Amino acid sequence: MEINEWCERILLGSSWEDKLCELGTYEDFKRKEIVLPAFPGRPPGLELDEWKKRERTSFREVGKFHSEKERGLVLHFFANHELLAVELMALAILKFQDAPANFRRGVVQTLKDEQRHVRMYQKRMADIGIEFGQIPVSDYFWRALQAMNSPKDFVTGLSMTLEQANLDYSLHYARIYEKIQDKETADILNRIYKDEVSHVKHGLIWFKKWHEDSICSWKSYVEALPKPLTPARAKGIGFNREGRIKAGFSTEFIDELEVYSRSRGRCPNVYWFNGNCEEQITNCLYGQTSRTPINQLGSDLRALPTLICKNHDIVLVEKKPTVNFLKKLRRSGFTLPEYVEYGYQNNLSVWNYGIIQELRPWGWNTESTNFLKPLSKYTKHDRRVHWDHKWKTLYSKIWSAAQLHDFLNTHKEPWLCDVEVVGVRCTKTEEVKKIILKNSGNFLIKTPIASSGRGQIRVKNGHIRADQLTNLEKIIQKHGEVIVEPWLDKVLDLSFHFDIGENEEITAIGWTRFCTNTRGQYRATFVSQMVAGLSSETKQFLYGNGKNPRQLNRLGETLSRIIGRAIAKLGYMGPVGIDALVYRNSNQELLLKPIVEINPRWTMGRLGHSLKSRVNSARTAIWLILHKREAISAGFNSFVEWAEHIEKSNPIELTEDKEQISHGILFTTDPIQSTTFATVLITAKSLEECEEMALQSGLKISI
Ligand SMILES: [Fe+2]
Ligand SMILES: [Fe+2]
Q1: Which residues lie across from 38 on neighbouring strands?
Q2: Angle separating helix axes 639-649 and 687-696, nearest 10 degrees
Q3: What's the gap in Å between 11 CA and the centre of ligand 2?
Q4: Domain 394-614 and domain 615-703 have a common topology
Q5: 615-703 is classed in which CATH architecture?
Q6: pLDDT for residue 218
Q7: For helices 163-179 and 68-95, what crossing angle results, to 10°?
Q8: How many CA atoms lie within 13 A of 79 on its CB side?
């Protein structure tokens, strides 16, 4: 038979005899004119526009393998992909008459394999009692590749992308069917997997030839990939490195693909870490420029939102984290988002990433609003791209003190603090002095808006020193007010987390325990085993002396509701964290101050909370922020050297299902990108073991 005739019959025919007709010995005559259909002919029930008329069955519904029928229907999805491959190959042969003869022969061979795959699935489905055509099928592959313009488009889009993904899928499902002891189906999938390796290989060989790229670099592949396909379509479930090596891809290519992420249809949330959010608000109020350390926090930890993202989300970064770091993260069970580089010029004017679900800076302020403005036209919720000056009230410790005051008056519980510990607003130095002298205890004088223990004066035994007085006068001059509160004998810090959604809908997320350093700056969050290392008295206190183990959760829910409502009234939507603390009063009794500070933004504690799902819950895990001077005092010149040493000495061990971390130390920000700050997750059997492990590499947890 002549191969163009054969392909026409396959493509235009609507019976199984046409679709699966055999070629036998063949000739290849060039044709001048070819008429191509918009859709391939299909046997009844399998038409590509069928799903518009019939109710669609999603793969997610049947891919759970709950019943015999579901197991059979999964094959229906695979069989349709094989049939589409048959048709797209026939289309390519017809379209590209001028392609090299041996390339066409290669496609003919592959097409025959695909016909065999269809037959195998068809037979297996019939054995199980499923008919091909029983459910409507997807036309995605056809839509994505029908417009291909060259044989290179064909090999890039089909062989190196859709067939490459099947290196993952076929192997993954072969394992599943083996597990449920369906040997027949597993054998088919294993057979198909083997063929698929050679199909991908064939495409890759020709790609290299046409692209004059002897290794097929990642860049040349991405550039050559016909739209709307993205490299995300070249991956399935799991990541089969071995199959890709067999097919001939370079390690560099495989590494890049492994860490590549791109939404496959879902609108992404776009994250941006502006860690200097509060400082910028204060600066804006008082016309100052940023101080270096906090700015550094911004650029060092720019990729931090990675830890809260889903794999269809986007994180905006000056520069992408390195492939090596991302590989480590992925292999530790993290899902990776897509990174969009805006470079050091802060250029967001070109956006090729489609509609955005929501813009999510670490915190809203004028800086993040201006920075994200170019993206506002792509968002579904346009009105979210703004900073409302009313919101600066929310950052103020004066506002949070007022909230605490009201809360304590309406929620009298024996384990909560008395209104006397609520901070008092003062606008004059004399007022501050009066309070301190009257009570002659220890006091904290706080700047209304400042983060992480900044702008605090600590007064001991009712005595305010001359230098502190000068400082106080300066603060009052600059801010117009301060807040004075008793300096409590702190036992531990906690935070409550919640989200405010549309229509003032509030969702409580949970609570975490965090730790500060001696200067009151944030140091760490407990990710798992919140009460590790605490005295039994404190543990009992937190869990209502065994009578009320959920009391912290309940308090968190009440706070979310009440404070959430007050915040939502000002129009704010997004995450909120409320810091609280447990202290000892003068009678040595433990009490809880439920509101110390309110943060209407993402917080380190909230990120720590999201890390919970990454760690075996039976283990203790702490997530820390590190400073460069710690690396130096541990005897290392950089975070890179230190990280290498730490991770080598304490490699990550995963749970059996490979989904959670059960032991080891992992840098959660790329050490190469950390000049001053870095973050690290430590997981072990107990807090003592965490401390010991870290100390052996020169890392003092010091909490
Ligand atoms: Fe196939
Ligand atoms: Fe194939």
Answers
A1: none
A2: 120
A3: 17
A4: no
A5: 2-Layer Sandwich (3.30)
A6: 93
A7: 160
A8: 27
> How close is the Cα of 219 to the center of ligand 1, in Å?
27
CA pair distance 410, 414, nearest whole angstrom: 13
| pLDDT value, residue 65 | 66
Burial track 409-435 (b if 16+ CB lie within 10 A, e otherwise)? eeeeeebbbeeebbbbbbeebebbbeb
Q: Tell me what pLDDT residue 601 has.
A: 93
Residue 42 C-alpha to ligand 2 middle, in angstroms? 20
Distance CA 51, CA 77 (A): 13
Could you tell me which CATH number the domain at 394-614 has? 3.30.470
Block residue for tokens 């065999």: 116
CA torsion, points 582, 585, 589, 591, in degrees to nearest 10? Answer: -30
Domains in the chain: boundaries: 1-146, 148-260, 269-387, 394-614, 615-703
From 12, 170, 206, 187, select the one nearest 81 (Cα to Cα).
170
Print burial letters for 568-588: b (CB count within 10 Å at least 16), e (below 16). beeebbbbbbbbbbbbeeeee
HSE-up of residue 5 (Cα within 13 Å, Cβ side): 10
pTM greater than 0.85 (yes/no): no
What is the C-alpha to C-alpha distance for residues 567 and 555, in angstroms, rounded to an integer?
17
Alpha-helix runs per DSSP H in 13-148: 16-19, 50-53, 59-62, 68-95, 101-128, 140-145
State the DSSP code for 156: I
Paired with 653 in beta bridges are: 663
| Residue 314 amino acid letter | I
pLDDT at residue 382, rounded to an integer: 53
**CB atoms inside a 10 Å sphere around CB 439:** 13
Span from the CA of 94 to the centroid of ligand 1 (angstroms): 19
Task: List, as one string, the DSSP characters of 41-59.
Answer: ---TT--TTHHHHS----H
Write down the pLDDT at residue 549: 87
State the virtual CA torsion across 570, 571, 572, 573 in degrees, nearest 10: 150
**Coil, helix or strand at residue 165:** helix
**pLDDT given for residue 292 in this prediction:** 47
> How far apart are the two ends of the chain, measured CA to CA in Å?
79
116 alpha carbon, closest ligand: 1
pLDDT digits (tens, 9 = 90+) for 557-587: 999 999 999 999 998 999 999 999 999 998 9
- Which is it for strands 269-272 and 314-317: parallel, antiparallel or unpaired? parallel
Give the pLDDT of residue 388: 84
Q: What does each C-alpha distance from 7 to 38, 104, 142, 558 come to in angstroms?
A: 15, 12, 16, 68
Tokens representing residue 350 in the block: 């070109």
| The pair of three-digit structure tokens given for residue 549, joined into one six-digit string | 């183990």
Backbone angles phi, psi at 650, to 5 degrees: -130, 65
Residue with structure tokens 């973050």? Answer: 679
> What is the 440 CA–ligand 2 centroid distance (Å)?
81
Sheet with strand 358-361: strands edge to edge: 338-341, 314-317, 269-272, 358-361
What single DSSP character describes residue 587? T
Which parts of the chain sit beneath pLDDT 70? 49-66, 282-296, 346, 381-385, 451-454
The rounded Å distance from CA 191 to ligand 1 centre is 10
Residue 110 Cα to ligand 2 midpoint, Å, equals 7
